[in-house]
Amino acid sequence: MEYYEFIESDSGTGSGDVFTKLGPYAWTTLAIALIETLVVVKYSHGLFVDAPWPLTVVIGWSVALGVFGVLYGAWCWRYYFGGKCTNSRSNRKRKKRV
After folding, report:
1. Pick the residue with more confidence: 70 or 48?
2. Cβ-based burial of 17 (10 A; exposed 0-12, middle 13-18, buried ≥19)
3. Residue 44 Cα distances to 34, 47, 48, 49, 50, angstroms
4. With contact defined as beta carbons under 8 Å apart, do 15 and 94 qualify?
5. Quick one: CA dihedral 74, 79, 83, 84, positive or negative?
6. pTM attached to this predicted model
7. Domain locations in the chain?
8. pLDDT surpassing 80 at residue 82
9. Dihedral of the CA atoms 65, 67, 69, 71 (nearest 10)?
10. How deeply is 22 buried, as exposed, middle or buried, from its count of CB atoms within 10 A (0-12, 13-18, 19+)?
11. How far apart are CA 80 and CA 73, in angstroms?
């Protein structure tokens, strides 16, 4: 939540927002996620290579990730380049250039 408000605030425009830097909770969350990822990578070496995945599982996950990627890409395109976003950095840059 803190990261979202930091990214979406207009702190440089003098609008009264108090978010000028990320706080300790955002950095702690990032550090925990990074450490947990490193632990999983370290201790899962060779854990899943013995049993191959069934073809139905591979196809199912491929279809799910493909659909998610297309929908997320379409949403991002509409949000950032379709005029829906009034507070994003890309929209502010586009307005300054015009």
Report:
1. 70
2. middle
3. 15, 5, 8, 10, 12
4. no
5. positive
6. 0.42
7. 1-51, 52-98
8. no
9. -150
10. middle
11. 11
